[in-house]
Amino acid sequence: MKKVILWMLKAMIAGLLSFGIVSGVCFFYYNLPVHYTNTTGATDYFWDKETVSMRGTEGFARTETDENGFVNTYPEKKDEINVLIMGSSHAEGFNVNGDENFTYVLNKMFKDNGQDRYAYNIGTSGHNFVRCLKNLDSAIETYKPTEYVFIETSAIDFDVESLEQLNGGTYETLPSNNHGLIYQLQKLDFVRLIYAQISNFAKKDSTDASEKKTEEKTDLKQYKQLVETAVENVSKTAEKNNCKVVIVYCPKVDIDYNGEIVKQEFTPEQEIFINACEKYGVEYINMFASYEAMYKETNNLPQGFSNTAVGTGHTNKYGHSCIAEEIYNFIIEG
Amino acid sequence: MSVVFTSLEFFVLFFVVYSLILAFNLKVVREKLSEKTQLTLKHTILLIASYVFYGWWDYRFCFLMFALTFVAWLCAKNIDRNKHAKLFSVIGVVFPLLILGFFKYFNFFVDSFIDVFGIKSTTTLNIILPVGISFYTFQSMSYTIDVLRKNIKSYSFPDVALYVSFFPQLVAGPIVKASDFMPQLKKNEPLNLPDLSKGLQIFAFGMFKKIVIADNLSVFVDDVFEKPLAFSSISVILAVISYSIQIYCDFSGYSDMAIGVARCLGYDFRPNFNMPYISKNVTEFWKRWHISLSSWLQEYLYIPLGGNRKGTVRRYINLLLTMVLGGLWHGANYTFVFWGLLHGLALCLHKIYLKLRKNKKENVIGSAISVLLTYAFVCVCWVFFRAENFGTAIDVLSKMFIWSDGITQIFSWSIFSIVLLIAATIVAVVKAKKNNSKEINGFYPVLDLNKISSLIIFFLVIMVIFMLAYTDSNPFIYFQF
After folding, report:
1. A296 touching B (Cβ < 8 Å)
2. B1 contact A CB<8A
3. Separation in Å, CA B207 to CA A35, A307, B1, B211, B265
4. Which candidate from A18, A194, A299 shows the least CB-CB separation from B408?
5. Tell me, what's the ipTM?
6. What is this structure's pTM?
7. pLDDT digit string, tens, across residues A186-195
8. What is the CA radius of gyration of chain B?
9. Please, what sign has the CA dihedral across residues B139, B140, B143, B148?
10. Torsions phi, psi of A35, nearest 5?
11. Count of A-B CB contacts under 8 Å
C-alpha cells in the first residue's frame, strides 16, 4: 500500500512537471488570445488587447493585436480610417504573420504608391458573412470609414435560418467566456490545444449528419427574397453612411489531376446573391480570376500551408497578397 | 470498421477485459478456482472480447471467422489423430484459400477475364471485403500446417478460436504462427505491473508513429498521389519519401500497438519490423520489413515450393512466385502484383550478385551507398504500391525522374519525420556500437516507470501524442489487406 501511494505521488509530480513543460512548448505552438464581448457591436468580440499570439497547427504564424483587440500591425497608424476591413479569420490573417495579412499589405501599397489612405482591419475569426452584415451598421458608426468597407467572405450562399434571423434582427451575438473557470482554462495553451483536438475529432464524427442537412433542397423563391432583403439593407446602410460597401468573395480554388484550375461554377443560390448585389448596386469582387492568374504565373494557390494540404484551409500569404492587390486596384480605379 | 486501437471504444473494451482478467489475481479467486478453470475463463473472456472487437464493424463476418476456425480445428484434430490426414490437410489449406479468393479476388479475376477476352455486358458481385481477412486466413492455415508438420499438437476448439481471433493482432497482424502462440495459452500467469508498464509504453510508441507521424504525412501523400502532375518534381520526390515513412509508421505503429496490448495481457508477439530502411540489400529489407509475413511466406510457401533445394533456376522461379503472391496478398490490383514482381526480381538479382561478387569485404562508404540504393529502390516500388493504377504510378515516376515545375510543397511534417527517423537510426547505431554488436536493431525505449524521470518522459510522450495527433479520420493502411 505504501509503495502504491508513493508511486502515485511520484506520478502526480511527474504529471505536473510534464504539464509545465508542454505548456511552455505550447506558448510557441498554440498560443491564442482570449476573446471578450465587444460592446460597440462592430464585431461580436475582440481579442486580448496588445497581445502576441503564435500558432503552428496550420502554417506557422506570429501575430499581435492592437489597442482595440484586432490584428493591425502596420506601424504607421492614422486617426482617420479610409478603408474598413471586415470579415472572418481569413481577413484577420489568422494563420499568417501580422505583416502578411491583406490589410497590412494594402496599407504598404498605399504608402509605396503615395496614397494618403489608411485601412483598418476588424476581421475576426468566427465572423462569417451574415455576422458581418449584422455588425455592419455598428462597425461603420464606430470606425467611421470615409470611403470603403470591404467585407471578406469565403461563401456567398447561406443557410435560410441565418438569413431569416439577420433580416428579422434576431441573429445572435457569439458569446465570450471572459470570466470564470472557462476563462482561466482558455489561458492554458495546452488545455486549449487539447480542447481543439477533441473538438476536431468530434466534428469528424458529425460530418455525415451535416452533409445530409446540406443535401436538403432550398426553396429558391424564399431564398431569393431573403438574400435580396439582406443585400438591400447593405445598400441602404452604405448610402446612409456615405461610403461604399464592397463584398470580396474569396473562393476555394481546386486543381485537377493535371494541375489545371477547376473552372468556377455557381450554384443557383450563389447566382441569386450575385444578381442581388447587381440589383442593389452593392459592389462585388470575385477573387477567382486573380487567384487563377496567380497560380498560372507562380504555381502558388491562395489557400494552404506547409503543414496542410495545398489549396485548403485558411488564406495564405500569397492569397493575402492577391486580395490586397485586387482591393488596391479596385480603389484606384474608383 | 472493427474497433480501432485509436478509438474510445477500444480503450473501453480493453479496460473491461483487463479488469475482468485482473480479477484472477485475487487470492480468493486463485484459491477457489482450479488452474484449468481459471485458464478456461480467461480464454473465454478474451474470445468474447475478440468477437466483439471484430463484430463491431459487421457482426455477419464473425460467422465467417467462426467457420474458418471450425474447419482449421476439425482438420488439425483429424490430422493429429492420423484420420484421413491427407484429405484434411488439403481441406485445411484449400478452404481458407477459397474464402480469401472469393472475398478478396473474385471481382479482380472476373474483371481480368473480361478484359483479356473482351467480354461485354457482364456484372461483378458486390462483395464487401471483410477487414483483416488476409491475416486470419493465414493464421488458420498456419495452425493446420503446424499440426501437420508436428510442430504442435492439436488444441481444443476454444483455444484455436482464440488463436485465430485474438483481438490485438486480428485485423492487421502481426501474423502470429500457431507454434509461437499456442504454447502461451497453457500458461496461467497473473497479470503483472512490469508487463502492463512495458505494454503501455510499446502501445504509446506505436500510437505516436501512427497518429502523429503516419496520419499527418498522409495529408501530403494523398494530395500528391491524387494530382501528381500538379506538383513540382521536388514535391513529388518528397511525397514518395514521405509515403515510405508513412507506410512504415502506419503499419509498424499498428504492430507496436498490437504487441503492446498483447504484452499488457501477458502474451508475447515477436517484433514485426526492425529498422527496414537501413537495409543494405533487398534480401535484408525483407528480413526487417513485415517480418511476420515474410517469414510466413518463406515457411509456408517458398520452402514448400522447393525453396533453393531444386536448382538455381527453380530457386529464382520460387522466389518470383512467392513475391508475386505476396504482392497479390496485399490487394486485388495489378499494381500490387507488379510491386511484388519488382521485389522478386530484385531478390533474384541480389542472389546472382552474391554468387558473382569477389570482394566480400564491407566498408563504411560501400555500406552507405548500398543502404541508399536499396532505399531508393524500395521507394520506387512503393509508388506502385500506393498508386491507384499504373497510369498514376507512371505519372508519379515521370515527375520524379524528369525535372519539371509545379506546386512546390515542402511539407513540414515530412521534414520533421525524416529528421526523426535519421535521429532514431543514429541512436540505434550508437547503441549497437556501445554494445559491441555487429547487428543494428531497432528497440522499444521501455523505461522503468518507478523512476520519476521516466514517468516525466512517459507523460510527455502521451501529451505530445494528444497535441500533435491528426484528428481527421485515417484508417490503418493495412486494414484494407
Report:
1. no
2. no
3. 34, 20, 18, 6, 18
4. A299
5. 0.89
6. 0.90
7. 889 999 999 9
8. 23
9. negative
10. -105, 155
11. 88
